[in-house]
Amino acid sequence: MWKGNFIMIEKNKGKWIGLGIGSIIVLFFMWGSVIWGLTKIDTQMVIDSFLRFDGSNEHIIIQDTRIPRSLIAAAVGASLAMAGAIMQGITNNPLASPSIFGVNAGASFFVVLGITAFGMTSLMSFTWLAFLGATLAVIIVYSLGTLGKDGLTPIKMTLAGAAIAALFSSLTQGMLTLNEQSLDQALFWLAGSVQGRDLNILTAVFPYILTGLVASLLIGKQINVLAMGEDLAKGLGQKTWLIKVLAALTIVLLAGGAVAVAGPIGFIGIVIPHVARWMVGIDYRWVIPYSGMLGAVLLLIADIGARYIIMPAEVPVGVMTAVIGVPFFIYIARRGINE
Amino acid sequence: MDAIRTNALTLGYGEEDIIEELDLVIPKGKITVFIGGNGSGKSTLLRSLARLLKPKEGSVVLDGADIARTPTKKIAQKLSILPQSPVAPEGLTVLELVKQGRYPYQSWLNQWSEKDEKAVQRAMEVTGVKDLSERKVDSLSGGQRQRAWIAMNLAQDTDIILLDEPTTYLDLTHQIDILDLLSDLNEEENRTIVMVLHDINLACRYADHIVAISNKTIYHQGDPDTIVTPELVANVFGLRCQIMNDPHSGTPMCIPFSRGRRKKDASHARKMDA
What we know:
The complex is a heterodimer.
Chain A: H1 12-35, H2 43-51, H3 57-91, H4 103-118, H5 123-146, H6 154-178, H7 183-190, H8 199-218, H9 220-226, H10 230-235, H11 240-262, H12 268-280, H13 284-308, H14 317-338
Helix pairs in contact in A: 1-3, 1-13, 2-3, 3-8, 3-11, 3-12, 3-13, 4-5, 4-6, 4-7, 4-11, 5-6, 5-11, 8-11, 8-13, 9-13, 12-13
Chain B: E1 2-13, E2 16-27, E3 31-35, H1 42-49, E4 57-62, E5 65-66, H2 72-76, E6 79-82, H3 94-100, H4 114-127, H5 142-155, E7 160-164, H6 172-189, E8 192-196, H7 200-206, E9 209-214, E10 217-222, H8 224-227, H9 230-237, E11 241-245, E12 252-256, H10 266-273
Parallel strand pairs in B: 3-8, 3-9, 6-7, 7-8
Antiparallel strand pairs in B: 1-2, 1-4, 4-5, 9-10, 11-12
Helix pairs in contact in B: 3-5, 4-5, 5-6
């Protein structure tokens, strides 16, 4: 069976070079995200909009729409993919990801609850609600997954995650049908999109996402030890509970932050860590940064593609990532069963 | 000298106690083997000695200090444990696995040192996995894989090594191979070895000290030559047997009584052979 090993980079030097090339690709698509779309824009216009802003339609689009969209897609894509990589590492579960384990759904429910029940509109309140919802989902899924004599098993955790994701999604829909006035605002946010988001949303959440990004890069070595199994990690003198709490906090910062900005976007968190492992193997010190890089590229491409499919209208980017992600998800699930 | 001792140790999951108020002494520099029936608590006891399971009551004492109050990395520098049938992450190489054994010696300030490198190389030499260092752990045969795991334990460079059924799922050749390796580690490097074994005959061959566990406590303990009797086997395993001297090692050997395919006419069988 194809295992993708032909793209495996074996040497550390190669991995550093790959990281460099990857960063250039991220920058290229960030640039592409500013340039490409319904309104024709070229590099000169982008430079001019910074140096000699003239209030023209193009300059406004560049400054208010395209640049925020580009930055948000890169940050959200990287965050979701890194959160997924950490979840897969600490749970030893190839299906773990913020969307499958209900973290995105939990964050979404709390934001919608804030909008519909309490009339909240400020970005900061969205952020805190998203963090709260993500935290709650992580705690519930982890507790349910640990119940019983045999402790935490991948299958119990996946079932708990699926149940919690379904529960929060239904509650969210329930909230929406009860309160139609705020439906529009909530739906816009729930569609899962990086378009039409103000740059202020990103700047409000950025410190948390950045903290999550740095933490996830530092935790890689600890995840390598924990991935050998709880007993072995404890035997080697790791404080496994501490690493799990730190990892959970990192996941909440990354996934909660991403959902606060862009709404729930699925499949990046599950697909990308697998691609990263194909490229750099199982060392999480590499898997995590590669996931971030590839996640940013995937969401940028999905968002650019979303502009062209039914032009002049746009497909929600969450739909694009699902179209890419579903076949891949089935592939991983089947492979997991066959082994 | 004792390597580890327990004081009134009570272990269990939830309401149910598996081991009750146990006082146990593990002699230093010897091979100690826990024997007992399925579910007797021998693995649970081993796990608690390595602080993988918190005692309900009582304590485990290592070097005069309660392990519950010793920093876990300090313990990992004195005592290593190989859990039963460990699973390496898919794609991990032998070298990467053995290197993890140096985890207790590393911190944010102390990254990989020459001492770490030497310990890793030595561990791979002693266990004979040096030629396999670039191979993936999941591609190795059962015996090679177990050697790789033991190499990880050795890289940890601890005086005490605990192993939970290190011969499970191995064929007889590799069971002997692994036990010979552990016996060498004990004799040549004076390491204290504590393990759980299923096979009472192998336990008698390799152990200096046998601890037979039954009924939530120690049924009997000591030198296999003196303590392993038909009575012990009947009480610990619920099996009637005859104990003979192993013709190869002179240690006790258990011949179980069973229905099986017994040859009713032994003299007839001999005639056939002739």
